[in-house]
Specification:
Layout (H helix, E strand, L loop, with lengths): L7 H19 L4 E2 L8 E7 L6 H16 L5 E6 H10 L3 H13 L4 H5 L11 E7 L2 E4 L13 E11 L8 E10 L2 H16 L2 H7 L3 E2 L10 E2 L1 H20 L3 E2 L5 E3 H7 L1 H5 L7 E3 L2 E5 L4 H9 L10 E10 L15 E11 L1 H21 L5 E7 L12 H18 L3 E5 L8 E7 L5 E10 L2 H5 L2 E3 L5 E3 L1 E6 L4 H12 L12 E5 L5 H12 L12 E3 L6 H10 L4 E5 L1 H6 L1 E6 L3 E7 H14 L8
Parallel strand pairs: 10-14, 16-17, 23-24, 23-25
Antiparallel strand pairs: 1-2, 2-7, 3-4, 4-5, 6-7, 8-9, 11-13, 12-13, 14-15, 15-22, 16-18, 18-19, 19-22, 20-21, 25-26, 26-27
Subunit structure: Homodimer.
Keywords: Aminoacyl-tRNA synthetase, ATP-binding, Coiled coil, Cytoplasm, Ligase, Metal-binding, Nucleotide-binding, Protein biosynthesis, RNA-binding, tRNA-binding, Zinc
GO cellular component, one term: cytoplasm
Length: 613
């Protein structure tokens, strides 16, 4: 087969075998788990007494390239399953023996589902296919390239721990991750993307910029927002309050814990119990930390009597929720156990549902474009009618809700894809997918159409004819959670927040001690200036550290402060500041009123201005 005709997944899987062959050549005692292709390359799990290092990766990669150059054939050999077990046992490959026994006894291995490695699954219990590459022999159904010269271009990237079959009770192996592509240009592009991704990692930048911290004394997955990070939270929440007010939302506040009966009524306990924390006993009753805000909002809606003229009713809250997340799944602000949602629920008539759903989608798009996010699309999650066990059992209700949602999606003009089996238990939903500047895809927020809440909570309104009619409920969170959205923004901007979001917008840098009084005067003027921030003025500091001016400027650049205001004798005499901008460098001297106007414009429009002429 020609090089160009070989599927990339086949090359990647063959490259995994090549890596295993190189490891076996260097460490003959190595025992091998599984080695599947991945979305960008491959990995292999290996048991080895020697702890692999970055230096070892270089040795393995060098040996792989030597073997690639030799164009070693991939030779298929078929064995009876019992002979295969004996062969692997004689080779000391305990993990392979375990897989072979599963094939013999059950006809397949569960390992494919656990690792995504379809290639490991055998085709039957009688005959097992093996592939030999150099001195390495592995059970595998293939297909593979003809020889090692066809595996393409690869780069070994990292070493991590992995439990055999994903079970912490099993042996811990060493997993070597690698990249693999058809061309060197594609490989280099992916390496560059990963390097850029590492530079933008919100966990690294969050620590560097002093935005948040997570400490053992408080608990994993429970971030503490530091003053600088809380500025971002405050500005985002203020943005949402303004836009929601313009869109006719009413703000409410609800408690963080609730009696268990409410979650029984809402359906969260039967459907969502695994994601909830254990109950707290208060006065011999079970209370739960809330995993969702919706039941509380339903109770607020149910508090009043509503007419058809009152519809729709839009209730909004930045609500704190708590959901169980396994320790292994926690990641900075992206995956946490406690988070604050930009939540709201819209209660509307059936004839209003499409337009309300559409308006929410437009709100999502408006926010994303404000942040310079143009690459977004929707994933429409629908139920699997073959498996309704995890959903409300009302096929007619599902079909009506799906028709409303699909009509709204088609009318919106936004790109979307449909996915079966991922709907919320109470209705279809739309996840808003965005792509970061380094190509990472995020499900950043959601919009859901609920036809079940009206039944469970008896939610309705009085129609024109006096009858009580059920409402549709739209669950929406355009800005997601503070935690996840801020993590995205940190990486999106690489820590260089636009002026309106910057924790510190300006810093005054006196050249010498004698300029400190004027520096403080500049700070006070900016602090009280009519700039429409959440704090009511420019967020400004003075650097009075006993350091040279250039060091202070470098410190401000490291902190990604947009405006550095240098003041000396000339500036004090003229009532000016010499402005250095984070992105534009030195931009000249400004009167304070002119500087205030510039920052106020950036704050009001939420857009940074170009470099002054």
């Amino acid at each position: 087969m020609s090089q160009d005709a070989i599927p990339l997944d086949t090359k990647r899987h063959s490259a995994a075998h090549l890596m295993a062959a190189a490891v076996k050549d260097l460490w003959p005692e190595a025992k091998f788990g599984v080695g599947p292709a991945t979305a960008t390359g491959f990995f292999y799990d290996i048991a080895l007494d020697h702890t692999l290092t970055e230096e070892d990766l270089g040795k393995i990669e060098k040996r792989m390239k030597e073997m690639r150059k030799k164009k070693l054939p991939f030779e298929r050999v078929d064995l009876n399953v019992d002979d295969a077990i004996k062969y692997m046992a004689d080779e000391g490959q305990d993990f392979k023996v375990e897989l072979l026994k599963l094939l013999r006894d059950k006809g397949s291995t569960a390992i494919a589902k656990e690792t995504g490695d379809e290639a490991v699954v055998g085709e039957g219990v009688d005959t097992i296919s093996f592939y030999k590459t150099g001195d390495f022999v592995d059970l595998c159904r293939g297909p593979h390239v003809d020889h090692t010269g066809q595996v393409g271009h690869f780069k070994l990237r990292s070493i991590a721990g992995a439990y055999w079959r994903g079970d912490a009770d099993n042996a811990q192996l060493q997993r070597i991750h690698a990249l693999a592509f058809d061309t060197k240009e594609e490989l280099d592009a992916e390496i560059h993307r990963l390097e850029e991704q590492a530079k933008r990692d919100h966990r690294k930048l969050g620590k560097q910029l002093g935005l948040f911290t997570i400490v053992d004394e408080v608990g994993s997955g429970l971030p503490l927002w530091l003053p600088a990070g809380n500025v971002i939270r405050d500005e985002l929440e203020r943005l949402a309050r303004i836009e929601e007010h313009k869109a006719g939302y009413h703000r409410i506040s609800t408690p963080h814990i609730t009696k268990g009966e409410l979650y029984e009524k809402s359906g969260h306990l039967p459907y969502y119990a695994d994601d909830m924390y254990a109950p707290i006993m208060i006065d011999e009753q079970e209370y739960y930390l809330r995993p969702m805000n919706c039941p509380h909002h339903h109770m607020v809606f149910a508090h009043d009597q509503w007419s058809y003229r009152d519809m729709p009713v839009r209730l909004a809250e930045y609500g704190q929720v708590y959901r169980y997340e396994a320790s292994g799944g926690l990641s900075g602000l992206m995956r946490v156990r406690g988070f604050c949602q930009n939540d709201a629920h819209i209660y509307c008539r059936e004839d209003q549902a499409k337009d309300e759903f559409l308006a929410v989608m437009h709100m999502h798009a408006m926010y994303y474009r404000m942040f310079g996010i143009e690459d977004f699309w929707m994933r429409v999650s629908l139920p699997d009618f073959e498996d309704l066990g995890k959903y409300v059992d009302d096929v007619a209700g599902w079909k009506k809700a799906m028709a409303i949602l699909k009509e709204a999606m088609d009318e919106s003009g936004y790109p979307y894809e449909e996915v079966e089996g991922e709907a919320a238990f109470y209705g279809p939903k739309v996840d808003f997918m965005i792509k970061s500047v380094v190509g990472t895809e995020y499900a950043i927020s959601t919009n859901q159409l609920d036809f079940m809440a009206t039944q469970r909570f008896d939610l309705g309104y009085t129609a024109e004819d006096g009858s009580k009619q059920p409402v549709y409920v739209i669950h929406r969170a355009p800005l997601g959670s503070h935690e996840r959205f801020t993590a995205f923004l940190i990486e999106h901007y690489a820590g260089k927040f636009p002026t309106w979001l910057a924790p510190v917008q300006a810093i005054v840098i006196p050249i010498a001690d004698r300029h400190e009084d004027y520096a403080n005067k500049v700070r006070d003027t900016l602090f009280r200036a009519p700039v429409d921030t959440v704090h009511g003025g420019v967020r400004v500091e003075v650097d009075l550290a006993a350091e040279r001016m250039q060091k202070k400027i470098r410190n401000a650049q490291t902190r990604q402060i947009p405006y550095m205001l240098v003041v000396g004798d000339a500036e004090a005499e003229a009532g000016e500041v010499a402005v250095r901008h984070r992105d534009h460098g030195d931009v000249g001297k400004f009167k304070l009123d002119d500087l205030v106007e510039r920052i106020a414009t950036e704050q009001r429009t939420r857009t940074d201005l170009p470099k002054p002429e």
